[in-house]
Each structure stands twice: as structure tokens, then as C-alpha cells.
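Complex 150.
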Amino acid sequence: MKYLAIAVTAASLAFAADVKLGKPLTLSQSSTVAEVLAQPETLVGKTVQVKGKVTEVCKMMGCWMALVDPNTTKPLRIKVNDGVIVIPKEAVGKMAVAEGSLTRIQLTKEQAIGRAKHEAEEQGRSFDASKITSGQTIYQIQGNSIVIQN
Ligand SMILES: [Cu+2]
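Predicted structure with copper (II) ion bound:
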């Protein structure tokens, strides 16, 4: 018990300050998730900085996180290169700023089902293939810089 208490104290100290991952931010202003998702086509290929609440982090590798505006539920995914940035699972529930290039991923229905199934397995969620009835266009930020706010 004593050792556990020490470990918990060390972990909370480590998260007392903002956690900066990857390169420094370059833009001086953040957009909301809604602002980015309102006009994604005009932003594809451009550097975007977005601020939102972390609702989910990849449980396997810490290689992506989902950000939402505090008052909405529509998520924007931030993807990072495996091993370059590892997003800590403790980020869930915190506000974060992420910056990188907005990318578009075009999936056929079969690809969309495969992706959702794979992700459900990794995240330990249930999965219903019948809910995916068409191909999907997914927009996500290829993240170079992430700041988890504390
Ligand atoms: Cu991952």
C-alpha cells in the first residue's frame, strides 16, 4: 500500500503541468472542432490547430485521440505517427490543443466496416457492421504537436 501511494503521487506530479508532445505549436490561434468540421474540404492539406476535450485515446499504441467541443459530441480524430508521439491514456477527459495537417480519408463501405471492426476490437467496444451502410469520408488531423492541458 505504501509503495502504491508513492507511485500515485509521482504520477499526479508528472501531470501537474501541461504535457507537450512532438514539435512546438506554430499557429497562435486554435479553432474549435465544429469550425474545422464545418468546412473540412477548404482545410485539407493545410495546417490546422484545434482545441477540444479528449474523449478517447488509442488503447493499443497511443497513436490517436478523439477531440470534441465541450458542448457537442461530434469528434475529430488526431492521428500521430507510431512511436513519434505517444498520447497518454490519462489525457482522456482533459482539454488538449493539437496542430497538424488536415487529411481526408476516403473509404469504401467494406473498408469502413473493416476499419470500424478493427478499432472496436482494439478499444474493447461492441461493433455492429449493419450500421455502416455506405462508404465514408473521414477527416482527421495528422498531428505534429499536441499539448495536453492540466
Ligand atoms: Cu493506436
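The domain at 18-148 is CATH 2.40.50.140 (OB fold (Dihydrolipoamide Acetyltransferase, E2P)).
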